[in-house]
Amino acid sequence: MGLSKKLLRLFFVTAGVLLFWTAAASADTALVKANGGLNLRTGPGTNHSIICTIPNGTIITVDGVQDGWIKATYNGKNGFVSAQYVTIRKEATDRSGVEVNRQGNPTGVEVVEYAKKYLGYKYRYGGSSPSTGFDCSGFTSYVYKQFGYTLNRTAAGQTQNGVAVSFDDIMPGDLLIFSNAKQTYGHVGIYAGDGWFIHSVQTGTPVSMTGLWTTNYGRRLKVVRRIIN
Questions:
Q1: Which CATH fold topology does 2-89 show?
Q2: What are the domain boundaries of the chain?
Protein backbone atom coordinates (compact mmCIF):
# COMPACT_ATOMS: atom_id res chain seq x y z
CA MET A 1 0.00 0.00 0.00
CA GLY A 2 2.87 2.35 0.87
CA LEU A 3 4.53 1.62 -2.47
CA SER A 4 1.30 2.34 -4.33
CA LYS A 5 1.01 5.74 -2.63
CA LYS A 6 4.60 6.58 -3.55
CA LEU A 7 4.02 5.61 -7.16
CA LEU A 8 0.81 7.65 -7.27
CA ARG A 9 2.60 10.64 -5.78
CA LEU A 10 5.42 10.30 -8.30
CA PHE A 11 2.87 10.16 -11.11
CA PHE A 12 1.21 13.41 -10.06
CA VAL A 13 4.54 15.20 -9.59
CA THR A 14 5.71 14.10 -13.05
CA ALA A 15 2.38 15.05 -14.61
CA GLY A 16 2.55 18.44 -12.91
CA VAL A 17 6.01 19.14 -14.32
CA LEU A 18 4.91 18.14 -17.81
CA LEU A 19 1.78 20.26 -17.49
CA PHE A 20 3.88 23.23 -16.37
CA TRP A 21 6.15 23.03 -19.39
CA THR A 22 3.22 22.57 -21.76
CA ALA A 23 1.26 25.48 -20.31
CA ALA A 24 4.32 27.70 -20.08
CA ALA A 25 5.18 27.32 -23.73
CA SER A 26 3.53 30.31 -25.39
CA ALA A 27 4.43 29.30 -28.94
CA ASP A 28 5.78 26.52 -31.10
CA THR A 29 8.83 28.39 -32.33
CA ALA A 30 11.10 31.31 -31.51
CA LEU A 31 13.46 33.48 -33.55
CA VAL A 32 17.03 33.93 -32.30
CA LYS A 33 18.02 37.62 -32.25
CA ALA A 34 21.64 37.66 -31.10
CA ASN A 35 24.27 38.99 -33.49
CA GLY A 36 27.01 36.77 -32.09
CA GLY A 37 24.76 33.73 -31.87
CA LEU A 38 22.97 32.30 -28.84
CA ASN A 39 24.34 29.59 -26.55
CA LEU A 40 22.26 26.47 -26.06
CA ARG A 41 23.02 25.25 -22.53
CA THR A 42 22.46 22.07 -20.57
CA GLY A 43 20.38 23.89 -17.96
CA PRO A 44 18.52 27.18 -17.30
CA GLY A 45 21.43 29.41 -16.30
CA THR A 46 24.82 30.70 -17.44
CA ASN A 47 26.52 28.35 -15.00
CA HIS A 48 25.47 25.39 -17.15
CA SER A 49 27.67 24.01 -19.93
CA ILE A 50 27.30 25.18 -23.54
CA ILE A 51 26.04 22.51 -25.92
CA CYS A 52 26.43 24.62 -29.07
CA THR A 53 25.93 28.16 -30.38
CA ILE A 54 22.79 28.83 -32.43
CA PRO A 55 23.29 31.30 -35.31
CA ASN A 56 21.44 34.60 -35.36
CA GLY A 57 18.18 34.46 -37.31
CA THR A 58 17.61 30.76 -36.64
CA ILE A 59 14.17 29.37 -35.83
CA ILE A 60 14.18 27.06 -32.79
CA THR A 61 11.47 24.86 -31.33
CA VAL A 62 10.10 25.99 -27.98
CA ASP A 63 9.32 23.27 -25.44
CA GLY A 64 8.69 25.49 -22.42
CA VAL A 65 9.49 28.75 -20.61
CA GLN A 66 10.73 29.14 -17.04
CA ASP A 67 12.29 32.05 -15.12
CA GLY A 68 13.65 33.86 -18.16
CA TRP A 69 14.92 30.71 -19.88
CA ILE A 70 13.44 28.77 -22.77
CA LYS A 71 13.63 25.02 -23.04
CA ALA A 72 14.36 24.55 -26.73
CA THR A 73 15.30 22.11 -29.46
CA TYR A 74 17.82 22.98 -32.18
CA ASN A 75 19.17 20.54 -34.79
CA GLY A 76 18.03 17.62 -32.67
CA LYS A 77 19.78 18.96 -29.56
CA ASN A 78 17.75 19.76 -26.43
CA GLY A 79 18.76 22.48 -24.00
CA PHE A 80 18.05 25.95 -22.67
CA VAL A 81 18.50 29.45 -24.10
CA SER A 82 18.07 32.87 -22.55
CA ALA A 83 14.63 34.31 -23.36
CA GLN A 84 16.26 37.74 -23.60
CA TYR A 85 17.67 36.94 -27.04
CA VAL A 86 14.70 35.34 -28.76
CA THR A 87 11.36 36.49 -30.09
CA ILE A 88 8.51 34.09 -29.41
CA ARG A 89 6.41 33.37 -32.48
CA LYS A 90 2.71 32.98 -31.74
CA GLU A 91 2.14 30.53 -34.58
CA ALA A 92 4.17 27.72 -36.04
CA THR A 93 6.14 28.67 -39.12
CA ASP A 94 4.23 28.13 -42.35
CA ARG A 95 6.66 26.57 -44.81
CA SER A 96 4.13 25.63 -47.49
CA GLY A 97 5.40 28.20 -49.98
CA VAL A 98 1.86 28.56 -51.33
CA GLU A 99 1.16 31.92 -52.91
CA VAL A 100 -1.41 34.02 -51.09
CA ASN A 101 -4.18 36.28 -52.31
CA ARG A 102 -4.25 39.59 -50.44
CA GLN A 103 -7.35 41.74 -50.32
CA GLY A 104 -7.18 45.51 -49.96
CA ASN A 105 -4.02 47.56 -49.51
CA PRO A 106 -1.22 45.68 -47.74
CA THR A 107 1.05 47.32 -45.18
CA GLY A 108 4.79 47.09 -44.76
CA VAL A 109 4.27 45.20 -41.50
CA GLU A 110 2.20 42.57 -43.34
CA VAL A 111 4.99 42.18 -45.88
CA VAL A 112 7.51 41.63 -43.08
CA GLU A 113 5.33 39.07 -41.31
CA TYR A 114 4.91 37.18 -44.55
CA ALA A 115 8.65 37.32 -45.27
CA LYS A 116 9.36 35.81 -41.84
CA LYS A 117 7.61 32.62 -42.92
CA TYR A 118 10.72 31.84 -44.95
CA LEU A 119 13.31 32.27 -42.21
CA GLY A 120 15.69 29.35 -42.47
CA TYR A 121 15.10 28.70 -46.18
CA LYS A 122 18.34 28.02 -48.01
CA TYR A 123 20.29 30.52 -50.08
CA ARG A 124 20.66 29.64 -53.74
CA TYR A 125 22.24 31.88 -56.33
CA GLY A 126 19.62 32.68 -58.97
CA GLY A 127 16.84 31.21 -56.81
CA SER A 128 13.51 32.97 -56.47
CA SER A 129 11.08 30.48 -54.94
CA PRO A 130 10.70 28.39 -51.77
CA SER A 131 11.19 25.18 -53.76
CA THR A 132 14.60 26.21 -55.11
CA GLY A 133 15.82 28.57 -52.40
CA PHE A 134 16.43 32.30 -52.75
CA ASP A 135 19.19 34.70 -53.56
CA CYS A 136 18.80 38.16 -52.05
CA SER A 137 16.82 39.86 -54.82
CA GLY A 138 14.96 36.65 -55.61
CA PHE A 139 13.71 36.66 -52.03
CA THR A 140 12.54 40.29 -52.02
CA SER A 141 10.90 39.98 -55.43
CA TYR A 142 9.15 36.75 -54.42
CA VAL A 143 7.78 38.24 -51.20
CA TYR A 144 6.45 41.36 -52.89
CA LYS A 145 4.99 39.33 -55.75
CA GLN A 146 2.63 37.72 -53.24
CA PHE A 147 1.19 41.18 -52.58
CA GLY A 148 0.76 42.07 -56.24
CA TYR A 149 4.00 44.05 -56.73
CA THR A 150 6.51 43.21 -59.44
CA LEU A 151 10.09 44.14 -58.59
CA ASN A 152 13.12 44.15 -60.84
CA ARG A 153 15.11 40.95 -60.51
CA THR A 154 18.47 42.28 -59.28
CA ALA A 155 19.49 44.34 -56.26
CA ALA A 156 20.69 47.09 -58.60
CA GLY A 157 17.42 46.95 -60.50
CA GLN A 158 15.41 47.27 -57.31
CA THR A 159 16.97 50.68 -56.68
CA GLN A 160 14.50 51.81 -59.38
CA ASN A 161 11.40 50.29 -57.77
CA GLY A 162 9.15 52.31 -55.47
CA VAL A 163 10.21 55.71 -54.14
CA ALA A 164 13.38 56.87 -52.41
CA VAL A 165 13.36 57.14 -48.61
CA SER A 166 15.91 58.83 -46.34
CA PHE A 167 17.85 56.72 -43.86
CA ASP A 168 16.07 58.59 -41.04
CA ASP A 169 12.64 57.54 -42.26
CA ILE A 170 13.02 53.77 -42.74
CA MET A 171 9.85 51.80 -42.03
CA PRO A 172 9.00 48.07 -41.97
CA GLY A 173 8.66 46.73 -45.49
CA ASP A 174 11.17 49.14 -47.05
CA LEU A 175 13.83 47.68 -49.33
CA LEU A 176 17.39 48.15 -48.08
CA ILE A 177 20.02 48.01 -50.81
CA PHE A 178 23.67 47.55 -49.88
CA SER A 179 27.05 47.58 -51.51
CA ASN A 180 29.25 44.49 -51.47
CA ALA A 181 32.83 43.70 -52.42
CA LYS A 182 32.00 43.64 -56.13
CA GLN A 183 29.10 46.03 -56.69
CA THR A 184 27.76 49.37 -55.50
CA TYR A 185 24.30 47.81 -55.34
CA GLY A 186 25.03 44.17 -54.65
CA HIS A 187 22.67 43.05 -51.89
CA VAL A 188 19.08 43.72 -50.82
CA GLY A 189 16.82 42.93 -47.88
CA ILE A 190 13.55 44.03 -46.27
CA TYR A 191 13.53 46.22 -43.18
CA ALA A 192 11.68 44.44 -40.37
CA GLY A 193 11.62 47.18 -37.72
CA ASP A 194 13.50 47.78 -34.45
CA GLY A 195 16.85 47.93 -36.27
CA TRP A 196 16.52 44.50 -37.91
CA PHE A 197 16.13 43.40 -41.51
CA ILE A 198 15.37 40.08 -43.19
CA HIS A 199 17.33 38.82 -46.18
CA SER A 200 18.65 35.78 -48.00
CA VAL A 201 22.24 36.17 -46.95
CA GLN A 202 24.74 34.15 -48.96
CA THR A 203 25.79 30.60 -49.83
CA GLY A 204 25.76 28.57 -46.63
CA THR A 205 23.65 31.10 -44.70
CA PRO A 206 19.85 30.88 -45.10
CA VAL A 207 17.17 33.56 -44.94
CA SER A 208 17.91 35.32 -41.65
CA MET A 209 17.24 38.36 -39.50
CA THR A 210 20.27 40.64 -39.08
CA GLY A 211 20.90 43.82 -37.13
CA LEU A 212 21.17 46.80 -39.47
CA TRP A 213 23.10 49.32 -37.40
CA THR A 214 24.91 46.83 -35.16
CA THR A 215 26.73 45.14 -38.06
CA ASN A 216 28.75 46.35 -41.04
CA TYR A 217 25.55 46.40 -43.08
CA GLY A 218 24.85 49.83 -41.62
CA ARG A 219 27.86 51.41 -43.32
CA ARG A 220 27.18 49.46 -46.52
CA LEU A 221 23.61 50.75 -46.83
CA LYS A 222 23.31 52.79 -50.03
CA VAL A 223 19.64 53.10 -50.95
CA VAL A 224 16.24 52.73 -49.26
CA ARG A 225 13.16 52.27 -51.44
CA ARG A 226 9.54 52.22 -50.28
CA ILE A 227 7.34 49.94 -52.35
CA ILE A 228 4.11 50.43 -50.40
CA ASN A 229 3.19 54.08 -49.75
A1: SH3 type barrels. (2.30.30)
A2: 2-89, 108-226
> Length of the chain, please?
229
Quick: pLDDT tens for 113-133. 999 989 989 999 999 998 899
Q: pTM higher than 0.70, yes or no?
A: no
Q: How far is CA 107 from the centre of its chain?
A: 19
Rg (CA), the chain: 21
Residue 161 in contact with residue 175, Cβ under 8 Å? yes
- Calculate mean pLDDT across residues 34-54: 92
Of 191, 201, 218, which is closest to residue 112 (Cα–Cα)? 191
Query: 1, 34, 24, 11: which is closest to 215 by C-alpha?
Result: 34
Catalytic positions are 136, 187, 199
Distance (Å, whole) CA 1 – CA 148: 70
Helix (H, G, I), strand (E, B) or coil at 51: strand
| Contact present, 63 and 71 (Cβ < 8 Å) | yes
Q: Which fold has domain 108-226?
A: endopeptidase fold (from Nostoc punctiforme) (3.90.1720)
pLDDT (tens digit, 9 = 90+) per residue, 156-173?
A: 999 999 999 999 999 999
